Amino acid sequence: MLSNLSISNWVGLIGTPLLIASGQVLFKMTSATAGELSVRNLLALFLNPVLVAALLLYGLGTIIWIYVLKAVPLTMAYSFMGLTFCFVPLLAQVFLGEALTLRYAIGAVFIIAGMLAING
């Protein structure tokens, strides 16, 4: 089934988890500016451009995902969301300086192996 997909479907299958992972990194960046829970701080949070960008990425990813699901069965497509567990640590390392470990690498290999087993 996956071998018959168009380029745009492949872009969506891989791009949506990348958009979601990017949003997660932006959420983390937003959390550094979030004050204590109060009405004033919530208003400031809602006006935070980094949070707005994160929400836009999530929204764009969702729209793209809807179109991917027109062509790919959910049971196959959803396994690609596991890529977020690979992308988030990579992006966190690049943009936040978080460490990548051997355990992360081993886990990422298992996630990708699982995707291949599900869709192979």
TrEMBL record:
Keyword Membrane part of the UniProt annotation: yes
InterPro entries, per database record: EmrE-like
Transmembrane segments: 7-27, 47-69, 76-96, 102-119
Keyword Lipoprotein listed: no
Entry-linked SUPFAM superfamilies: Multidrug resistance efflux transporter EmrE
Keywords in alphabetical order: Membrane, Transmembrane, Transmembrane helix
Protein name: EamA domain-containing protein
Species this chain originates from: Rhizobium favelukesii
